[in-house]
Write a structure and sequence with these properties.
Blueprint: H1 8-19, H2 25-78, E1 86-89, E2 93-104, E3 107-108, E4 113-116, E5 129-130, E6 139-143, E7 149-160, H3 171-177, E8 180-186, E9 198-211, E10 217-223, E11 236-242, E12 254-259, E13 277-285, E14 290-292, E15 295-297, E16 300-308
Antiparallel strand pairs: 1-2, 2-5, 2-9, 3-4, 4-8, 6-7, 6-9, 7-8, 9-10, 10-11, 12-13, 13-16, 14-15
Length: 312
């Protein structure tokens, strides 16, 4: 039968082996150091990624501001016609009549009112198309012959159940539209205005580079009175910020340049009737600085567009 060794030496060796199963202080220090190095590397990577995304976002916002300004100004300026002359042509501002809608007279309502078909699409064709609902600050312009437009100040514009009976339109087209509009005007309408006469709605406004309360420069819009001397309302910011205004055409934040039919640059004070093309240059500047390859910079972007007046 085997015997168990119970000698004191054997028990002492086992006790020492069990005591060595813990973690030494030096091992803890090494692990903490490795974790610290790894955490620092991850944190540095995250900071660089945040800087990259912030820089990209600032660049995109700067470019987007320039593109928005170009698209907005191009749409409005291109639609000008001989009857919608430019009222102000400055290096950092332009004021003109912009088209906001069109329609067809379908019924007369006294000497100062006309009925218009609704803006719904009859069989896919809109008899009334409105970019913005006309109001008392706008002008209605009626085509009297092939080239002459008769202007009237709008004193009322509202929905109406007019059926446009007796008009030159097919009744099924008018009926498919539903409710129409009642347009009230001043002064008295000319006798040549009758059912079937085209009508355009125009709004007078001014685009300009202006200095805002935050110390930066923006593209702003003012709505002005349609007739008479120019009186404009409060300015509304549209895009920006841009570079500061400067008399130097190579440095200013927003620049308007005007050209005639032969491509000649029009001098300051020239008649707006001679404008055939408007060149717009925008130079945007970011609100914040960013770090690119160790350098601190302010994102900037610029664009130039030549806008030919379509209805010259």
């Amino acid at each position: 039968m085997p015997t168990v060794d119970r000698s004191p030496c054997r028990l002492s060796w086992n006790s020492r082996a069990q005591a060595r199963r813990g973690v030494a202080l030096s091992e803890i220090i090494v692990v903490l150091a490795l974790v610290g190095v790894l955490g620092s590397a991850i944190g540095l990577t995250l900071i660089r990624q945040q800087r990259f995304y912030r820089s990209t976002s600032e660049l995109l916002q700067t470019r987007e501001g320039v593109r928005d300004a170009m698209e907005l100004l191009s749409t409005d300026i291109r639609g000008l016609s001989v009857s919608d002359t430019v009222r102000l042509a400055a290096d950092s501002a332009i004021e003109f009549f912009a088209n906001i809608g069109s329609s067809i007279v379908c019924q007369m309502s006294g000497v100062n009112g006309v009925g218009l078909p609704g803006s719904g699409p009859p069989r896919g064709n809109a008899l009334t198309a409105l970019l913005s609902r006309p109001d008392t600050g706008d002008v209605a312009s009626f085509l009297r012959d092939s080239s002459e437009w008769e202007r009237h100040r709008i004193i009322g514009f509202g929905d109406s159940p007019l059926a446009c009976s007796g008009s030159s339109f097919a009744q099924q087209d008018i009926a498919s539209v539903g409710k129409g509009f009642l347009l009230e005007l001043s002064p008295t309408l000319n006798l040549e205005v009758k059912p079937g006469t085209p009508v355009r709605f125009i709004r007078r406004g001014r685009y300009s580079l202006y200095h805002a309360s935050d110390g930066r420069w923006y593209l702003g819009y003012r709505r002005c009175n349609a007739l008479g001397s120019s009186t404009c309302g409060a300015i509304q910011p549209l895009s920006g910020p841009y570079r500061d205004y400067s008399s130097d055409a190579r440095r200013t934040g927003l620049l308007f340049e005007y050209f005639g039919e032969s491509g000649n640059r029009l001098a300051s004070g020239a008649s707006p009737l001679g404008i055939a093309r408007v060149d717009v240059t925008a130079r945007a500047e970011s609100r914040q600085r960013i770090v690119v390859e160790g350098r601190v910079i302010t994102p900037v972007d610029s664009a130039t567009v030549a806008i030919a007046i379509r209805n010259r």
